[in-house]
Request: fold
Amino acid sequence: GRDFFEFGYKYPGIIRIDADTFETEYFTDFVEIFYADKKWREDDNRYFFVDGVALNDGNLYIPTGLDHHLFSLCIEKARYEFINVRTNIKKILRISGYKDEIWMTDVDGSTGRITILNRMNDSVEEIILSSKGIWYAPFFWNGYAYLLPMSDEAACYSVNTETKTAEVFSRLDELFFESPEPEKGTGRRNSNVQAYEQNGSIVTFIRRPDLTWFTYDFETNELTSAVYEITDEEYIKNLEKDYYERIFTGACRNNMII
Reply:
């Protein structure tokens, strides 16, 4: 059958729903690990899980509110474990899976750190990027990982998945400068990405604060842009209502159908 998993942001539990029979199962005993952590309890902004789920070899991986810890859930056996990623990473912000690896970005924006956990041997690698900032989880295409900025100071990068060497991906990086000629050093970064989606060789993302939509095709090197304006006030109000309900009612943040 198919299972639907809901991971809570501030809800103390994981819910598994059978998509065919709608039978529900709750996982809650893991929260004791959180409550036992003094630093987590004293954090005013404490949470259980954050956005982003990676699927690897029958296991779900998701960042937690505990410092440098991943949560792993075995789907078939319904067993879980906490993985201590023993590196300099502070808190894991976003993750994505590539082959046997889990790629992680850091909440700490003072270093350009990307952490990679190999689940075959539990080895850990770190890539230090040339700029500071925070990034979304990388997406992958044709042997490269691509990183889009979540903060203004962060650059766009391409990372060779074999050699783990990183370079600024100037084709997209130039979109986040106030000057059209960043290579001459005359501009400064003044924008970042609000959201993105990958579909094969094509990535679509929204630049903030001007909310311009960009679509880039890695196969053809074609880049297009557009600006959309929503004029339906009732639609906007409904969007805002749904957004605040999700935040203030402790609604589940992540879900995945297996």
